[in-house]
Request: fold
Amino acid sequence: MISFLLYLLLAVFIGLLYHGIHRKVIARIQTRPGPPVWQEFLHTLKFSFKQTWIPMTASQLMFVAIVVIMIAIWVGGLYVLLTGGSLLILFAIFLLHKITEHGLGLSSGSPYGKFGAIRSVISAASEIPLFATVGAIYMVTGSLMISDITAYEAANGPLLLSVIALPMAIAMYVIVLSKVPYNPFGIIEAKEIVSGNKTEHFGVWRAGLETGFAIKTFVLLAAFVTLFIGALPLWLLLIAMLIVLLTMSFICALTPMLSPYDAVTIQALIIGFVVVYVVIAGVIL
Amino acid sequence: MTGKTKALMVLSGLICPASAILAAAGAIDAIVMVAALVIFFPLFVISTFLTWKASDHEGDYPFIGY
Reply:
């Protein structure tokens, strides 16, 4: 139980560090020096020290509560993952995250925030079905409990090496990719709408959001590794998560931000591909 | 505002480790500990940041961590 609290603190630390490494790798690929890897710590600290208030146009309660909720849902997500809980609950937490993203943009009253909020709904239309395809893991493992899935992998080898489960790994990979900073699907915080749904959350509120996003990155990367490679010792889990993140850094560095239409279309095509594959595999099995 | 924020920081900062210790000792269920952490950890983070942020009455001061 105390270990969960330590894991929570570790998740914040590792999440921020990995965000920094992600930025550094993107910069090096683009032949820029880039910020130091601890930049996201400085970033979060900087925001936390800033003067902070609530914009006049904002819904005061919503503006503050959404930051608290953003951290809270991923604390719950971390617990579900660490205790080998249901994949459906993790799916529900991801759903809540999309709703929170939407609320984040709407709470400020800023037009940029509202655009970000609307785009979060658009992206939800493709990201949530994408996550649902991971439910096809049930076909292979016979369970949606993370503990059962890791037990299956311990007996039969990683799902990543299974031809049947590979499309689900791709779907989950796209989900995680669409949640890391600077990703090609990140239409809700595209530069043409300033910082999208985060535009008006500055100072302490932004520092709180960065803390929540750090836990989110940790949970999603750890979930990907646990679901498709298996239960690993902590040090190996962190290395595996870093390798997965580095592959995403390459994609983020080499792929421009897609337009909202293209982002949804590509994600919808992946959903279509996975669904067809699952139906065919289901018939064959 | 600052007094209430500090009180919240101390309260939530005590509840988080206390719930983990009580759960480890078997005094409370794990689900109660998680509920406490889900509610109070975010409050601890935000109240801590609000406690040490720059004053609203004076000019902003630069972050010297760089």
User: Anything to note?
Assistant: Chain A has one domain: 2-284. The longest helix of chain A spans residues 2-29.
